[in-house]
Amino acid sequence: MNEESGQSGQLRQSGQEPERSAALFALLGKRWTLSLLAALGRGDDRFDQLRAAAPRLTARMLSSRLSELVGAGLLVRELAAGPPPLVHYRLTATGAALGPALAGFDRCLERAAAATPGEEAA
């Protein structure tokens, strides 16, 4: 499957907001995606750094997830010259724009964890 097909490609190709939103949430809901985006937001940008940020993540799954994020337009893959050549990943403007939303999810989860049973919503 090429990068422009399947779920990841839907983020770029679909002109309809509900479909684009569903594709984005499906990608974000995949295992390891949020951990990788958080690590990239902290400045980790090489394959080995990203793998160290999620020790239970296999190299094969990391490669697959990075490819999906690149295909979705959330990351850019850059090759740095030199022996040995190094691959760096960085958030695109779209990927970086997810930062505040993901921080909001974290705050929501923290509130939910701290709430006592039966506590009314604010």
Automatic annotation (TrEMBL):
<dbReference type="InterPro" id="IPR036388">
    <property type="entry name" value="WH-like_DNA-bd_sf"/>
</dbReference>
<feature type="domain" description="HTH hxlR-type">
    <location>
        <begin position="17"/>
        <end position="117"/>
    </location>
</feature>
<keyword id="KW-0805">Transcription regulation</keyword>
<keyword id="KW-0804">Transcription</keyword>
<keyword id="KW-0238">DNA-binding</keyword>
<dbReference type="InterPro" id="IPR036390">
    <property type="entry name" value="WH_DNA-bd_sf"/>
</dbReference>
<dbReference type="Pfam" id="PF01638">
    <property type="entry name" value="HxlR"/>
</dbReference>
<dbReference type="InterPro" id="IPR002577">
    <property type="entry name" value="HTH_HxlR"/>
</dbReference>
<protein>
    <submittedName>
        <fullName>Winged helix-turn-helix transcriptional regulator</fullName>
    </submittedName>
</protein>
